[in-house]
Structures are given as structure tokens and as C-alpha cells.
């Protein structure tokens, strides 16, 4: 007998809209505990492109919150806000 479980990964950004120099908190939920994840943000404004990415590991509850969790690599290490 096999059991299939399904999980839904959610992503939420707060605030919903912001200017480029404002702090945005991104929260992922529904991940496996200690799951590695990379967040990438990209913005294209006519002839200018902006991009950043950061590597995180979800906590014991399977969540990542960019305000509370430190990036472990990418464009920055530590608690810097995307």
C-alpha cells in the first residue's frame, strides 16, 4: 500500500507593490524542512535590467522568510532585504 501526499508551496510578497528602494519581504511556505531554495528577483525597465538572487534553507516548519532568514549565498550573504 502506498500513500501519496500532496503539498502546495505558496509564495507571498509584502507589500504587494513597492518602489525599487523599498524593502519587500518574501515568504515561502509548504516546503520540506531544511529544503534548499533560491529566490531570484528580476526587473526589466526599458533599457535597464535589475536582478538579484539568494540561497536559503527552509526552517523546521518548511518556511523561508527573507526578513527573518539569512541568505547563505548568491548576490549577498546574511540578512539583506531583496
What does this structure look like?
The protein has 82 residues and is mainly beta. The protein has a single domain (10-74), classed as Immunoglobulin-like. Helices cover 0% and strands 41% of the residues. The protein is built from no helices and six strands. It has strands spanning 10-14, 25-29, 36-45, 48-57, 64-65, 73-74. The strands form two sheets. The protein has a three-stranded antiparallel β-sheet, with no helix packed on it. A three-stranded antiparallel β-sheet has the order 3-4-6, with no helix packed on it.
Give me a quick take on this structure:
The chain has 82 residues and is mostly beta strands. The protein contains no helices and 6 strands.
List keywords for this structure.
Immunoglobulin-like; mainly beta; 6 strands; 41% strand; three-stranded antiparallel sheet; 82 residues
- Overall CATH class: Mainly Beta
Give start-end ranges of low-pLDDT stretches.
none
User: What order do the strands of the largest sheet run in, or round the barrel if closed?
Assistant: 1-2-5
Largest sheet: 3 strands, antiparallel
Strand content: 35-45%
| Strand and helix order | EEEEEE
The CATH H-level homologous superfamily: Acyl-CoA thioester hydrolase/BAAT N-terminal domain
Amino acid at each position: 500500500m502506498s500513500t501519496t501526499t500532496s503539498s502546495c508551496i505558496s509564495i507571498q510578497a509584502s507589500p504587494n507593490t513597492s518602489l525599487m528602494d523599498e524593502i519587500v519581504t518574501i515568504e515561502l511556505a509548504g516546503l520540506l524542512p531544511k529544503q534548499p531554495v533560491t529566490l531570484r528577483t528580476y526587473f526589466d525597465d526599458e533599457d535597464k535590467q535589475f536582478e538579484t538572487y539568494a540561497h536559503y534553507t527552509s526552517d523546521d516548519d518548511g518556511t523561508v522568510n527573507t526578513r527573518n532568514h539569512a541568505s547563505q549565498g548568491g548576490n549577498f550573504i546574511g540578512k539583506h532585504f531583496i
